[in-house]
Amino acid sequence: MSFFPIYRPRRIRANENIRRLVRETQLSVDDLIYPMFVIHGQDTAIEITSMPGCFQFSIDRLVIAAKELSELGIPGTILFGIPESKDSIGSEAYDVNGIIQQAVRAIKDAVPDLLVITDVCLCEYTDHGHCGIIESGEVKNDATLEVLVKESISHAHAGADIIAPSDMMDGRVGTIRKALDSEGYENIPIMAYSAKYASAFYGPFREAAESAPQFGDRRSYQMDPPNSDEAIREVHQDIHEGADIVMVKPALSYLDVINRVKTQFQIPVAAYNVSGEYAMIKAAAQNGWIDEKRVALEVLTSIKRAGADMILTYFAKSVVKWMNQ
Ligand code: PBG
């Protein structure tokens, strides 16, 4: 390696065309998954206050939104459901006529090519808002697995293309994999929320999904933010149990984790650019303090540069529109 004045790094930054040639990371529509929220009812679209531009859609409106995703060339959506009523075991989560099961059938019917990923968790469906079954004030791991299995099978049965468990119970990937296989769904991939942190960045999502815990917090099952060796162990275990895609979540404060996972394992890595990351950019942009398009594209490109193969982001539709401008 030679140094100045032989090597002048600015030579390859002189104009946009040369920058295009040497650009190392390219964000593309191929990388994007758009999350959507679905509620019971008809002809309803309720904007989420802390997530401008994102809505709770009734199924008819969700189908229209799904068609738009397909027209924009976005490969897939991940769905979150708000049930009619909640109970202690989250029974609508596995109801054949639950909100997600109906939504999946409606989208697959209208837009068969759009990949429908379903989030498997109980927090939206339980009256206590935790991601599992509670006994003596504690989230019980193995009792929760049984419900997650029923939920996963019901999603597969409704036509889900990919199952994405986000609950952070131990052993759920292997347990769900086995159950899917025994029901004849051996070709449905699992996208595991493998390194999911107990993050304050989920705040706006909990408004959107009406899923805030009614007591305590999620720190006994979601990961402690200071840890990254532990993320490697989680990912390793999920791959061993049959995960096809592993996820790091949130994304922006965990770029190092994304990078470690991608460097260590040769498996597709997803990163979730979560609600709080979206809300911060939206809020600052609405105040005129930052340029939304440039900041969002810079953030998403950094997530890709860190090693993510795909990004779940509420900016997905905007990205495509910005790219086509
Ligand atoms: C369900 C789930 C959450 C998110 C995705 N799946 C919330 C949580 O764990 O509290 C967060 C997504 C976001 O913030 O955008 N467990």
Task: Bin the strand percentage.
Answer: 15-25%
Question: Would you list the SSEs in sequence order as H and E?
Answer: HEEEHEHEEEHEHEHHEHEHHEH
Name the average pLDDT: 97
How many helical elements?
A: 11
Number of strands: 12
Principal-axis shape: globular
Give the low-pLDDT segments: none
Account of the protein in words:
The longest helix has 18 residues. Helix 2 packs across helix 3 and helix 3 packs parallel to helix 4. 39% of the residues lie in helices and 19% in strands. It is globular, with a radius of gyration of 20 Å. It starts with 15 loop residues before the first helix and ends with a helix. It contains eleven helices and twelve strands. Strand 4, helix 3 and strand 5 form a beta-alpha-beta unit. Strands 1, 2, 3, 4, 5, 8, 9, 10, 11 and 12 form a ten-stranded mixed beta sheet that branches. It has a two-stranded antiparallel sheet with strand order 6-7. With 325 residues, it is an alpha/beta fold. 44% of the residues are buried. The structure holds ligand PBG. The site of ligand PBG has 10 residues, from helix 6.
